[in-house]
Amino acid sequence: AQEHLALQWICVNGFGVCARWLSEITWEVPRFDGWYNSLGNPRRGSVGSRLVRLVPAQYWDGVYQPVLEPLQPNPRRLSRVLAQGPSGLPSTRNQTVLFLFFGYHVAFEISDLRSSGCPPEFMNIPVPKGDPVFDPNATGEVQLPFRRGEWDQASGQSPSNPRTQINSVTAWIDGSSIYGPSSSWSDLLRSFSGGRLTSGSEWNMPKQGGETNFMWSAPDPSTGEHQPQGLYELGNAWANENMFTAAEGIIWFRYHNYVASKLHEEHPEWSDEELFQNARKTTVATFQNIALYEWLPGYLGNKTLPPYPGYQQFVDPGISPEFEVAAMRISATMTPPGVYMRNRTCHFRNITNADGSTSPAIRLCNSFWKRQRINVKTGQDVDDLLMGMASQIAEREDNIVVEDLRDYMYGPLRFTRTDLVAMTIQRGRDFGLQSYTEIRKALDLPPVETFEEINPELNRTNPQMLQAVAELYDGDISKLELFPGGLLESRDGPGPVFSAIILDQFERIRNGDRFWFENKLNGLFTDKEIKEIRNVNYRDVLLAVTSADATDIQENVFFWKDGDPCPQPAQLEASMLYPCTNATKLNYFDGSKAGFGIFIIVLFLFPVVSFLVACMVACLRKYRYKRFQRRRRIAGNGTEKPPVGIPAFEWQGHSKQMCPISVEVEKRRLHVFDRSGSTYRSLNLGNQDRLDVLLANDRQNKALLLKVPKEYDLVLFFEEESKRADFIKYLCLELKEIRQEIRVKELREKELLKEALTKEQRAQIVETFIRHAFSKVLEIQKCDAGDMSGIPPRRAREVLQCELTASEFADALCLKPDSLFVDSMFTLADKDGNGYLSFQEFLDVMVIFMKGSPEEKSKLMFSMNDVGGNGYLSKEEFARMLRSFIEISNGALSKTQAEDGIKAMMQAAGFNNKEQISWEDFHFLLADHDKELQFAKLNVKGQTCIVKEVLRLCVKFLIQCQRVSFICPANRQEQSSNCTSIKTPNVYVKAKRQEYIRNPVQQKIQQFKRFIENYRRHIVCFIITYSITVGVTLERCYYYGLQAEATGVPETTVVGIIVARGSAAGVSFLFPYMLLTVCRNLITLCRETFLNRFIPFDAAIDFHRSLAMTAVVLSVAHSLAHVVNIYIFSVSDLSILSCLFPKVLNNNGSELPPKWYWWFLQTVPGITGVLLLLVLAFMYVFASRYFRHISFRAFWITHYLYIVVYILTVIHGSFALLQEPRFYIYLIPPSLLFLLDKLISLSRKKVEIPVVRAELLPSGVTHLEFKRPSGFVYRSGQWVRIACLMLGTDEYHPFTLTSAPHEETLSLHIRAVGPWTSQLRELYTDESLLELGSYPKLYLDGPFGEGHQEWVDFEVSVLVGGGIGVTPFASILKDLVFKSSIKSKFMCKKVYFIWVTRTQRQFEWVSDIIREVEEMDTQELVSVHTYITQVAEKFDLRTTMLYVCERHFQKVWNRSLFTGLRSVTHFGRPPFVSFFNSLQEVHPEVGKIGVFSCGPPGLTKNVEKACQQMNKRDQAHFIHHYENF
User: If we measure between CA atoms, which residue out of 556, 442, 431, 580 comes closest to residue 50?
Assistant: First the structure.
């Protein structure tokens, strides 16, 4: 059975060599971790086993909360009272220092309770104010760091299961301090050669660390060194605490190799494993024998264990907290302040200190965790140290602890010194130890009633100390804690309480150990071998492994008696040694602030960098696009003309750049050309007596100022003085011909520029001029016209004397200077004919325009065009007048349309029977439009704030008239006459407002109700999605804030981790489900199902943006939280971080945390997180509306980085720093649907779609008609995505189908507004088609649905198209008329189509479609209204005649002069509120009206506002669907 167990264990722990060992080892090999030693309970005594309490725990709450101040005295104050005293008192029994440190080694062998618990809990010890060691400045704020010990997580749940600590090593004396508490540790120490342990630089010294984290690597309190290099690798993790405990470990390292060498000599055929295991069992047995039968009796004062009864399987060897935390700590009283070193000849060595001075011994307080050992470097030095320890007598066994442990015990780097006695007292409270009196009672010891009874001898020699201790416990002995009580009772060794605890502990360890060397049933040793082991003592071990001979050390190395060799020179006192270094503090973040700050700034610059890159890409795209347009323009118009005249640069002001120009004098005029050869400015030189020219006489003499009366001055800079001289010479020659004087004056350039009247200053003068002119006309207040009190007198004079040029007059009217209207009007107003308008001349004209009657205004218009001044207009003059008005439309009419309009108006004016007409005939022609003339005015630039009242009346009238025009279609004369019969719209509107509009509060309530009704599906989906997001976020926040106690998060980085994990959970949900919003094919399919009643599929892209913005906000919050976290991690102890990240960081005692850059750049989450921030910055910047429109390809490419984002996110979370990966749980379902959608699109993209017809329409519109793929089904208003590989890219662009579903082919109308669409248009030019030979083929993806498909669900629908946004309605209108013609049944009874365009010529193709619709619309389902926005409003005097022409043309020919359609054409922008209000009156029975708009955001926003305003009322409900482009 034993052989089977041995084989089983070796197969598990021997890494695959069990077959070889079967014939070599015939006994059961003990495990290194202590498991299966006890047959009663295999876990007893193993690594991580619970402590075994002798008495129940005493916690403040009965569970885990310790009893602290003020219920118990301050540990530091108690330490100073209890353990303070002189050093240099020798042991009463002459126990040696070697005996003392062997006892420490025994303690390390069976217990290790120094590891801190997780989560970290702190019980820092307040230092009394004014403490001479720790608080010399009397701040009262100093605390000694203290963390609670490791405990069993299954304990501490209730009073019946209070907190119980665990032991980090085995409780057996099984050599764990020699071989380590695990097989991996042992394998690290082994050489796997000859059964030996690995040696270091010397054969008799262990190797030094640096490769592993097994050894505890606490920092040196004197130097701050914390790296593992320089520490010996031994079985005892704490062996390097000081050189003296390390020497004990080296002894047993040597002894194992000594035994292994002997066995190898005796059995050369044995394998390494057999040699190792035999040497191991012999070494462990020897250690067991010395510890219990030599050291323990000496420690307890000849109190010995009872004879060995044999193995007792039900005995629990578990370490008791009373033993570990109190009884064994009595050794601290025996620890000297220093340790001697001597050689074999009894020469005690001088010790070299850190500063080069010497001392008689190694100072204990300065030897903790030394890496650089000045005095103990070689094996011989270790021998000298051991012999010195054998000759030195320890401190007395009493209550006094030397200052090296009481005041200068090593602490953490944050506070490098601490108090061992205070720490021991606090540890007892942490472990919940019972009081001293309760322990006495449990051990059946006589009770004590007073403090004096504890130690009568001490009461006699030091009653003051005893009294002081009693006062700290309020004189209540029942409060006295175990460790202070044990110290007080100590006399020549442990007192009765500690002795009983120690004896009990070692007896249980021996009797419960199945592998105890005296157990004859385990097959380890024979009787003979047991006797041989019993005869080995510690002296024999030392003689075997050191250079000492038998005469160099005494017979009993644990005691020194008179006559023994090499007595110590003197009992060491602290004053004889080098002083202890004082406590220092360390900020872990020192030296990292600058780097950390710079790195965070770099992270914040990611969006800035991506923005700059986007700007560069945008500039590059604009440059290429402009170059492309210029190349096309040059190809069409030939090369640009070279500049004429003398080249120069015009200066226009200090804040503006100089413009390259050329100047030329010709026919008494000075012409200024730009570099393209176009006339930039023309100055009349003949209307002034003399010409003043100012020249600069400094700064290389390049500047020239030409004073121009009544205009702004011309300031020129020439490249060199000679060119300026040529210009002056040339100018003098030209002026000489017209006999005009020129006066030249020189002055400094600075004064010359100051003298110049710039264009900007001239504009201010003109603006003030016009304001004051209107103030005279309209009699408005001076402040509204602009006060001239602050203007210098010279400037005020210039304003009053100012005369407008023709170009300034045209600019004031927002017209071109060469306009016929401007020419006629300026000629009429310029009464003196000097080419300028004076203040009075301008005023006379404005009075008529602003206050004149309709007759006066019509007479003024007549006079403007009566060139001959004979009171009649000829055919040519009348046609010229009409052309001037048509010209104002900025190309709204084609040449043919203009001629048709002029012909119709001339016929109406009676020119068929007359050669000329009088003013009476002209006024009769305008008789039907008195109202238009009444409110006609000049729309002068900048007059808005001046003519407020006039504008208010005009706008009011405009709204009323247009409101009525919607109700009465203009394509029926009868209806038109009825329409105009409405004479009192004000009363009608006012009455309706009183009836339907409530107070503001009710309006808001009604608006809110309509908003809910409009967007209920959106709101429900929004609430569900964001509720889930908030739910998963709060769940993680709650977990890490309150429930994740085992991780230590609530006690360490509460805010940072909570925000980081919460936001990460939200992002983990949003990122995957964002994919569903771009599954176009699945969305289109789902729209046809019942799901469309609950989910607003048409708002998928808007929802995608919303989710994306939420995700980026959470990502930023996640990043900022981790910035805070990393800072906290960088200033936290490694022991704390090891609780948070047990899979990544191991607490090896070094305390120093990883630097901030390790978290950012050397961990998988850090690197992937930084990369994610960079990628997301580029994605979000290029996805913004501005950059997406400028460079769609850049948006396309950067958005494909989503693949990188998801890969990095999976990797980012898979490292599992804090929790197991969860992102994939959210990712799998939507990613599968997304892949399915992609497969559907890819299956279509593989099919080339041949183009059957291509047509280049005006305004850059390309009409493509291509073959309809088989099985391609779509509905009107849907859109597709197309790609053209001939353009060198596979990017897809969305366009709305303009064909109807019943048509056999598909058609698109694509406007060239960017690089891709412009290149696509270029591809279908005649030149390209000749080169290619055929139409380039397209790739098609779609169709995809939008909200415009729902127009059939409303009885009345309003379709609003702006610009190219009219394309979806082309398909809808054709589909509507087709369904109507075949008597198809659908809900829609009336459709109003509003077409908003800058000019009709911009989208002539739409006119063709609407004309087709009008011809097929026999049931009058469609009512079309066209708005031309480039033409001024109809009550502007400049366009009154144009309006008259349009209405007359509509009346006579039943079609629009502008569009050729029967629909009404309006000038300006549509008044949506008035229109929607009229719909409520025309269709009172309709409860819901669908409004569908497509166009620029400004248009859809205005429609949305109008719908919201109408929904405040209780009439028809307007439901708005929109799409922006």
Answer: 431
Provide φ and ψ at 170, rounded to 5°.
-75, 150
- Structural class in CATH, domain 772-851: mainly alpha
Q: Which of these ranges, 527-531, 715-719, 1258-1262, 1381-1385, has the smallest mean pLDDT?
A: 1381-1385
Q: Which two tokens stand for residue 661?
A: 């120009």
Token code pair at residue 1278: 């849907």
Q: Which amino acid is at 845?
A: V
Q: How far is CA 1048 from CA 118, 166, 1056, 1158, 1215, in A?
A: 6, 18, 13, 21, 19
Any idea what the Cα angle at residue 894 is, between residues 889 and 895, rounded to 5°?
110
Residue 675, φ and ψ in degrees, nearest 5: -70, -15
Closest CA to 420 of 399, 406, 404: 406
Distances (CA, A) of 1040 to 116, 1034, 1037, 1111, 1145: 21, 10, 5, 21, 20
Q: How far apart are CA 805 and CA 820, in angstroms?
A: 15
For the chain, the structural domain boundaries read 75-545, 646-759, 772-851, 1024-1077+1094-1215
Strand bridging mode 690-696 / 741-747? parallel
Evaluate whether 1458 touches 1395 at the Cβ level (below 8 Å). Answer: no
Given the structure tokens 């101040």, which residue do they identify? 69
Sheet holding 1248-1249, edge to edge: 1248-1249, 1338-1344, 1279-1283, 1293-1296
Q: Is the peptide bond before 119 cis (omega within 30 degrees of 0)?
A: yes
Kindly provide the b/e burial profile for residues 601-640, where b requires at least 16 CB atoms within 10 angstroms of the residue's own CB. Answer: eebeebbeebbebbeebbeebeeebeeeeeeeeeeeeeee
Per-residue pLDDT tens over the stretch 189-218: 999 999 999 998 899 999 987 656 678 888
Return the amino acid letter for 1202. Answer: Y
List the one residue out of 126, 60, 67 whose CA is nearest residue 480: 67
Q: Hey, which residues does 1308 pair with through a beta bridge?
A: 1264, 1297
Alpha helix stretches (DSSP H) within 1307-1454: 1315-1323, 1326-1332, 1367-1381, 1404-1416, 1437-1453
CATH topology of domain 646-759: PH-domain like (2.30.29)
Please check whether the domain covering 75-545 is classified as CATH 1.10.640.10.
Answer: yes
Which residues are bridge partners to 1492 per DSSP? 1359, 1521
Tell me: the pLDDT tens digits for 240-267? 999 999 999 999 999 999 999 999 999 9
- Which residues, other chains included, contact 953 with Cβ-Cβ below 8 Å and sequence gap of 6+? 935
Residue 1256 per-residue DSSP state:
E
Q: Would the pLDDT of 383 be above 50?
A: yes
